[in-house]
Specification:
Distance between the termini: 33 Å
Number of domains: 2
Structural class: alpha+beta
Number of helices: 7
Number of strands: 14
Largest sheet: 6 strands, mixed
Amino acid sequence: MANGAFTTDHVTAQQLYTEFTESVAVQNEQGVPFRTQLCKETTQKTVRVRQRSMTAQKLGADTTVPDRQHMEYREFSLSEPVRYGVATAMTRESFDRGVSSDEMREEHAEALRAMSRYATETIISASMTDGGWWDATMAAAPPPYKMNTFATSHDHYLAYNVAGVPALSHFIDLKRTIQEHGYGRVVAFMHGDNSALIEKKAEWAAATDLSAGGVLADLQKLGVTPAFMAAGVPVAVEDWIPENYLLAFCLDEKPLRWRHPEGTENSDIYTVDSVPDGQYRFITEYYSYRSAKVVHRGAGAAAYLSSATWTDPTFAI
């Protein structure tokens, strides 16, 4: 790092580098909202998720004892973490020509936002790609809950040919699809363009009550605020959701696993101080590993609003 490099407002490059390093540490502690709220972290290649499976047995004579039981489990293979990075740099010419500390701070902030965007898109992609939630192609049916039993054809990827305009009944379907497995509070997300399509629909005129108790606070932890209620489901307008899709999940469960590389406690963003090579006076680099997978398959559901047949949305990652 070139200690003698100054910005136009007399801040040294070394001072900015120290500031940026500290801000990365703060972001690592705060986490990315969707990842923090929806993912448990692990370094394991596989994860076992326990399933409801024990049953009480009627006993006969006084000496009869029940059979020994243990909880069944489903084992999921977690994808190999993929490394992503962003590098920012200020050339020697930039310093000679004049660059302010605010300009450099903006570069740094945008680099961190870019890393957060990729983390969020990784999670949304895992949640909305067929095969995450129960998907009607299981070798074994989902476990029963109370009087509810399920077939291997049970599907959490719903589809409606409604030209992108959801009805209240679609939110009821999403809610029931999740809650029949024993999950509680359900929230839903939709793209802003689809929200605009329903604003003038008569059936939505009364769907604006936001008296949802603690759900509001939990959604705000995700960085969103509900726009309206639909059949008792708080709905947030979130443009991370692809257009013409709905995503719903239970707030009481972290349904995904985020895998770090083996041997690391944390694979989050970090900085690297690159030695100037004559062209650059200031270089910072930010890296993180991305791997997210749904493991609580009943805790969420998705709906496609442009066809009666589910089609996976397209993501950049």
